[in-house]
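User: Predict the structure for this protein chain, please.
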Amino acid sequence: MLLQVSNADVSYGERTLIRDISFEVRNTEKIAIVGRNGCGKTTFLKLLSGEILPDKRDGNDQPNIAKAPGLNIGWLSQMTFTDDSACLGDEIRKVFLPVLELKTKLDALLAELDKAPDEKKAQEYATLEERFNYLGGYRYEKDYELVFERFGFAREDEARPLSEFSGGQRTKIAFIKLLLSKPDILILDEPTNHLDISTIGWLEGYIREYPRAVIVVSHDRLFLDRVADVVYEIEHEKMTRYVGNYSDFVKRKKDIYDQQKKAYEAQQKEIARLQAVADRFIHKATKATMAKSKLKAIEHMDIIEAPEEYELKAFHALTVPSKESGFDVLDTDNLGFGYDSIIGRLTCSVKKGQKVGIIGGNGLGKSTFLKTLAGKLPLKSGKFKFGHGVEPGYFDQQMAQYVSDKNVLNDFWDIYPYLTETEVRNILGGFLFTGDDVFKEVSLLSGGEKVRLALAKIFETRPNLLLLDEPTNHMDIVGKEALEQMLKDYEGTLIFVTHDRYLVREVADALIVFSGDGIKWFPWNYEEYERSFGKEKQDAAKDIWNIDRNTSEKKTEAAKENGEQQKPAINIGKEKSRMERRIAKIESLLAENDTVREELTLKLADPSISSDYVKLGEIQKAIDDLDKNDEDLMSEWERLSGELENLS
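Assistant: Here is the predicted structure, written as C-alpha cells:
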C-alpha cells in the first residue's frame, strides 16, 4: 500500500465537499477520480499532495493519512520555474539531478572495484544500481528526447530562455518535467486539456506502461476507459470505489442502483403489507397477537435505505430541423482558408444527414476552417457552396466566455421575445437550467453553463446544418453525455471540431483530419480510422518503458564478479541462507493468505451485508487480489527452490 486516507473530510470555505473519505493507492494502480464539476475532485488532489489538510474533527475519530516511507508524489503545481532566464533544455534536465548524482557515485564505485575487488563495495554498488535503474538512469536522455518531441518542441527551442515561452507552452514544459520526474504516485488533473488527439493517444500508452501508481482527474471518457483500472466517484459528498475502467464503473453503478432500488421497493412493499395486516387486526382481541407480531417483524428488519437518485440527465430539444435541406449540403473545391495567409486547403463533399468530425493537432486551422464556412472569415482561394435550402447554425468555442449583465431567462428571452415565459423556461430546462437556475446572472455562469445557454439559442432556430467548434470544452462528463445523445438524435447534418475522441467515436460517421501532412477527408468513423492509423503512437509511448536491461545487467554482473573474487565460499553460504529464509517466509505468507481468504469467504455469506453491493464487490476484489498474490508467491517459491537446488 502506497497511500491510505481514512476518516477524513475536506471542505472549500464553509462548504463540506467530501465526508468520511476512505481511499487507498496500491503499487501500480491507475486510479480515476470522477464526479460533477464542483464536487471536490481537485480539492481532493490537493489533500493527497499535502497542499491542504483534512478538516479537524471533534472527539477521537480523527482523520488519518498514511504514506509509505520515502513516498514521492508528483503533480503539476509542484513543477515551478525559479529562473526565467534558464534555457528550456537545462530547465527540463533539472529533474534528472537525482539520477546524475547516483551515476557519479556508481562510476566512482566501479572504478574502485576495478582496482581492488571488495564484497562490501560490490553490494553497495548493486543496491545503488537497482535504484539507478528504477529511476530510469540507463535511458534518461532517450526519455528526454521522446517526451520533448512528443509535446511539439523543436531542437532549436532548447537554447531559448523560459521567458520567451507563452503561458500554454510553459504549462507543457511543466508537464514534461512532471512526466520525466517519474514519481511513485503521478497525479494528473485534466491532463488531456489542450492536447491534440495524437498526443493524447501517446499519453494513454505512457500511463498504461507507467510502472508506478497514477491518479487522474479527467472528463475524457475514452482516456479513462483506456488507462484506469480503478474508479473513485465523488457524489452526494461521498467517495465510492469501483474496480475497472470508466465503462465498467458506469455499468457497475447502474447495476448497484437497480439492485438497491429493487431491494428497497420489495422491502417497502413487505412493510406496507405487514402494516396493513397490523392496522386491520390490532383492535380485534382475537387477532391482536398476530397484529403485534407483524409490527415486531417490521421493527426487527434491517431497513434498506432508498438509493440516491441515479443521475442520468439529458438535453431535451427539438432535434428535427424546421425544414429539410437538399441532398448535397456542402461542396468545397480546393478551398483555401486562413487569416493573413493560407494555412490549409480542402476538397470534400458533405451529404444530407452526415455527421462529420474534424480532428487534428492544435494550431493547424480546424477552427479557422469552420469560421470560414460560417462566414466569419473570408475564403482565401478556391470555393465552397452550401446546397439547396441549407440553413446553418454556428457555435463558436468563444461563446464559453460570453458576458451579459442579464440573467439566463432574460438573456434568452431577448432573442426570442415572441415566446411566453413558460415556453422559454421549458426550452432552458431542456438544457439543464431548471428551477431558480434561470435567474442566475450570465456573468456568474461556469464555462459549461455558458456553452449550454449558447446551444439552447442555436437549437431554437432549428437549423438543418450544425457547425460546432469544440462544443464539449468546459463540460463535465454528464454534460458531455447529454450533448452526445442529442447530437446522435439530431436529424440534420453536423460538422464539428473536437478533441473529445469519445464524442467523435459515438457521433461521427466521417472525418476531416488535420495534420502536418495536410488535410484529408476520411469517409469512415473514428474506430476504423484509429485501427488504420493509431497503432504507431501507442507503440511509441511503450518505448519509453523498454528499459535497456542489458546495460544494467552487465554492469551489475561486473560488480558482483569483483566482489565475489575474494570470498566465493562465504557468498554461496550467505546466498543459500537468504534463499532458505525467503522460501520459509513465502510459505508463511501463503498460509496467512489462506486464513484471510477463509475469513473473506465467510463474510461474503454474511446476511447483514447481502444488500451492500459495494461492500460485496470490495470483498470479492480482496479475494481476487489474494489469488493473484498467491500466483506471484508460488512463482517466486518455484524459482528460488530451483536456484537453491543448484547451489547445493
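Confidence is low (pLDDT under 50) at residues 547-552, 564-570.
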